[in-house]
Amino acid sequence: MNGNKFKVTTQQDEHQVTVHLQGDLDLAAAGEFRSLLEPIVNDPALDLTLDLQELTYIDSTGIGILISVLKLRKEQQAQFRIVHVPQQIQKLFDMTGISKFLTPNA
């Protein structure tokens, strides 16, 4: 953990919501992140994109949230993408084996 304060900003254009993550997504930030995502994730009419460009760290709690979102959006047959994954985060996704599930389907 780098100690970078977690921050979330959202952009919405009609049926598209982009959530920008910044800092460290860890146990301390998990509750805030879940609360923010819940209404978006539970609306299958919205296309959801997570932009990780400024994410500096993610722990198992954060990865668990991403997996939960992925499963729910799949059940809803709703759009979910993760973009701009930093190299160190991508490496962790690769090591844990979740990369193949987070890749947008063509």
UniProtKB/TrEMBL annotation:
<dbReference type="InterPro" id="IPR002645">
    <property type="entry name" value="STAS_dom"/>
</dbReference>
<protein>
    <recommendedName>
        <fullName>Anti-sigma factor antagonist</fullName>
    </recommendedName>
</protein>
<dbReference type="Pfam" id="PF01740">
    <property type="entry name" value="STAS"/>
</dbReference>
<dbReference type="InterPro" id="IPR036513">
    <property type="entry name" value="STAS_dom_sf"/>
</dbReference>
<dbReference type="GO" id="GO:0043856">
    <property type="term" value="F:anti-sigma factor antagonist activity"/>
</dbReference>
<dbReference type="InterPro" id="IPR003658">
    <property type="entry name" value="Anti-sigma_ant"/>
</dbReference>
<feature type="domain" description="STAS">
    <location>
        <begin position="6"/>
        <end position="106"/>
    </location>
</feature>
<comment type="similarity">
    <text>Belongs to the anti-sigma-factor antagonist family.</text>
</comment>
